[in-house]
Amino acid sequence: SREQQQVILDRWIKDKFIERIDYTLVFQIVFISFVFISFVLLGLFLFWNRKLANEINLRKEVEKELRKSDFHFRSLFELSPDPAWIIDENRFVECNHAAIAILGYKNKEELLNTHPAGLSPICQPDGEESFSKAERMMALAIENKVHRFEWVHKRFDNSEFFAEVTLSLITLNNKRLIYCAWRDITERKEVEHELDVYRDNLEERVEARTQQLAEATAEAERANIAKTEFLSNMSHELRTPMNAILGFSKILEMGSDRLDESQLSHVREIIAAGEHLLHLISELLDLAKIESGNLEIELENVSLSHLLKPCLAMISTQATAKGIHVYDRVSDKGFFVIADADKLKQVFINILSNAVKYNRDDGEIIIDSEVTDNSILRVGISDLGNGISVQEQKKLFTPFERLHTPSNIEGIGIGLVITKHLIESMSGIISIESRVGEGTTFWIEIPLSDR
Q1: Which residues contact 157 (CB under 8 A, 6 or more apart)?
Q2: What is the DSSP string of 191-230?
């Protein structure tokens, strides 16, 4: 039957396999497997234990550094000269001694656990309530890590002051806090307010000052016009009687056979004084013409040799009287320049006359020239006088400014002023080189003619 066949098959399998199994070998395999698994587990345990120990040591080092950092932070916090707070959940939880002293409190217990708006007026200067503004400022500090703004604080005696506040997000003892540092800026705000007031009034002040300057300028122009007209009128008015005096004096000189030596000497003194006064009147008239803009210039080709000879002749008598030798190194070179002949002659006469007046006895006058690359003729007139200091050179072309000169040298201090105006009206330049005790050279630059 089927059951008998199954029994026979089970018996056959048992006889063929199970009875042949070597139980010693099986035991060895199981033992070795157990030992191997034990060693693996032990290795894993030792590895994990070592890793855990390293993490514990690292954590201890970190905690040690954190305690050290916290100590340093608290030391700096307490010793800081600027007042500072530590804020946690919108409450002051720590403050330094500087904050207590500036706010006028006795101890920190009176300040801690207070909302930042509690040490402030109800509203800030911008009109925002202190409580809501403080909340908004702290939110900005948390969002941006750092936030700076201005704030009005209130002291223990209810006096108020401006402060510049800086909020910084920090971590202390694994807790996120806000570090608040501030400083009194009341003086700065007062200065800013003064500047604002000054700026607001500045436009009015500038307008008023401009009006004053315009009035002063107009008054100066009127005074200058009046002065110019006076000089011009007086010069014309003085010339007529002066010419009469000179005319009658020369008539007397012509009848010298009727005069004795004393009388003739007096007549000649009258003539010399009159001619000097007439020269001064002419200078004043020239200055009046220059300042009024009525000076007429007619440019033409001028022979320098023909122009210099009469100028040298006019100063020759004065130069000979002082034993001064004149060396003309220009006339024979045949230069032609573009100028007004009469005005240029006046320029040379003024400079040559000064070279004689301010020269030393038995001195020299040297007239020399050079041509520059841009077709300009430079004529130099040098003397061996006392020279002019740098300080006095700055005043040389100022009207009626007389330098420190011997009292016997005549003049009113406008000759060089007129000379400068005349040469510049002909597109020329006048300059000076001088050394005290060695002498002076006046340089005149005038355009050369292409003739």
Answers
A1: 104
A2: HHHHHHHHHHHHHHHHHHHHHHHHHHHHHHHHHHHHHHHH
Distance, in Å, from the CA atom of 335 to the CA atom of 362, rounded to the nearest integer, reads: 30
**400 phi-psi bin (left φ>0, alpha ψ -120 to 50, beta other):** left
Query: Are residues 305 and 335 in contact, defined by beta-carbon separation less than 8 angstroms?
Result: yes
Nearest to 284, CA basis, from 399, 426, 429, 395: 399
Q: Quote the tokens at residue 248.
A: 């009658």
CB atoms within 10 A of CB 71: 10
Q: Which residue has the higher pLDDT, 404 or 335?
A: 335
Distance, in Å, from the CA atom of 239 to the CA atom of 155, rounded to the nearest integer, reads 86
**Count of C-beta atoms within a 10 Å radius of residue 246:** 17
- Mark 36-69 as b/e (b = at least 16 C-beta within 10 Å): eeeeeeeeeeeeeeeeeeeeeeeeeeeeeeeeee
Annotate 79-128 with DSSP letters as a single string: H-SS-EEEEETTEEEEE-HHHHHHHT-S-GGGTTT--GGGGS-SB-TTS-
Tokens of 50: 């070592």
Retrieve residue 48's tokens.
Answer: 């994990």
Measured N-to-C along each axis, helices 186-254 and 261-292 cross at an angle, to the nearest 10 degrees, of 140
Which of 259, 236, 287 lies closest to 398 in space, CA to CA?
287
Q: What sign does the CA torsion over 254, 259, 261, 263 have? A: negative
pLDDT at 2: 67
Q: Which residues of 211-229 are buried (b: 16+ CB within 10 A; e: fewer)?
A: eeeeeeeeeeeeeeeeebe
In the predicted model, what is the mean pLDDT of residues 278-287?
Answer: 64
Q: Return the higher-pLDDT residue of 70 and 19.
A: 70
Determine the Cα–Cα distance for residues 191 and 428; give it in Å rounded to an integer: 54
Asked if residues 323 and 362 have their Cβ atoms less than 8 Å apart, the reply is: yes
pLDDT for position 440: 92
Q: What is the DSSP string of 124-151?
A: -TTS-BHHHHHHHHHHHHHHHSEEEEEE
Helix (H, G, I), strand (E, B) or coil at 269: helix
* Whether the Cβ atoms of residue 96 and residue 103 lie closer than 8 Å to each other: no
Residue 403, judged by CB atoms within 10 A of its CB (0-12, 13-18, 19+), counts as middle
Whole-number pLDDT of residue 302: 92
Tally Cβ neighbours within 10 Å of residue 395: 12
Rounded Cα distance between 115 and 121, Å, is 13
User: What pLDDT is stored for residue 412 in this prediction?
Assistant: 46
